[in-house]
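writing this on my phone so excuse typos. first protein, seq and then structure
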Amino acid sequence: MKDLKEIRLFCLDMDGTIYLEQTLLPQVKETLAHLKKQAQILFLTNNSSKSAKDYVEKLKKLGIDISLDEIYTSGQATCEYLYQHYPHQSVYLVGTDALKEEFEKHHIPLEDKNPDLVVLGYDTTLTYQKLVLCTTFLNQGKPYIATHPDINCPATPYYVPDIGSMMALIEKSTNRTPDFICGKPYTIMGKTIMEKFHLKPHQIAMVGDRLSTDIAFAKNNDFTAILVLSGETTLKQYQNQDIKADFVFASIADLLT
């Protein structure tokens, strides 16, 4: 059994863990204050349609004041991956203006005529013309990177298509799947987090409501996996899955005890 007393960094998913859409979940503020007595906090999200600044502002509206350094998005992770593995190469980016700003902040050249590679983000402003350019470049054999793999995004009353659904459409047209995916559950974000915070895997916990991203991310990086049942996953669904968390709580508030 892993020991929560050894944790020096809690990575927290947001939607379904901290809040549900625009509503803060019960006792979140008290829990965050409690956790900060023991460790640092990092809000971790796969949603690349918004910037870190957007999330700081959203959390502030919900009564949680954090700094930009306490948010890490799959968009930021993708920029860092490109900086290391495709330095100075131009990108055709399928993404929102917020994601474009993130790329520009990292000095990654954006190009829609003859790019070196294609990056697919969760584009809530997706158009047919963007898809035409994307598939054209992929059919030319350009490298293909995606920010994260989520198929759906939480919304009320139903889920809405996320990047994974866009990937499926593109695959049908081009027979291409991403050469690399940067977000949860893959290891690139985990490695970067360990380097930034100078921590070992046993000192980091991932708290989230999704088995396929949050808990799988923890397992892939050998972090402590904490599943909360306040979002996507029900106890029955969890019991019927092979992947298992180290701890299962009704909500993040259970970390108060």
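second protein below, same order as before
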Amino acid sequence: MNNLSILLVEDHRQLAQTVLEYLEQQGATVDYAGNTRLARELVQEHHYDLMLLDVMLPGEDGYSFCQYLREELALDMPVIFMTARDQLEDKLEGFDRGGDDYIVKPFALPELVARVSALIRRQRKEVTANTLQIADLELDPARQEVRRGGQRLKLSPTAFRILRILMRESPKVVSREQLEHELWGDLVPDSDALRSHLYNLRKAVDKPFDEALLNTLPGVGFSIQEMTEIAP
């Protein structure tokens, strides 16, 4: 974790201190905010590689703040939610608002570090200057940009990686197991995490347009291709 810059947003001071000290022992540089007001200032003044974000915060909650980062600031840094809320609907809400991972309190600090490292490693893996294109959909790995019909699309970092995998493998079908392994390795959150990210990806890539490109083959996997390529 050397040279990683992390923003920790957590209102429980004792927990925040414990997490901060442990991450710094692993070589990371950590800034701390006890509320989203201060976090808003910090993200506009500094670059961070990743954010650890509590859900239950005073004033604005973590879900709303994450959505603000994605939609208003267009920040694509990975976000890991930290919360005691462990119900499925809570996890889906976190992914829907732009989160990339979700760890339930109380958690083991080595697991948190493993999730941070895995998320950063997969975000940085295989970044090249080669633009991928299918129909009017373009993905630029170097600029971390996706456009369809010339319109820039807003994707979370995880949705961006899913799309890149599917476009890289197109027109082949990518299994759920392959997607999960490339995204999370052996630290897969749960089956609904991938489903939620795919739902948000489809909403961004297909819903505003006439032609759907993202295809689901039940029990087989996922692919992205022009409909003319899969017509009987």
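The longest helix spans residues 109-124. thats all i got for now
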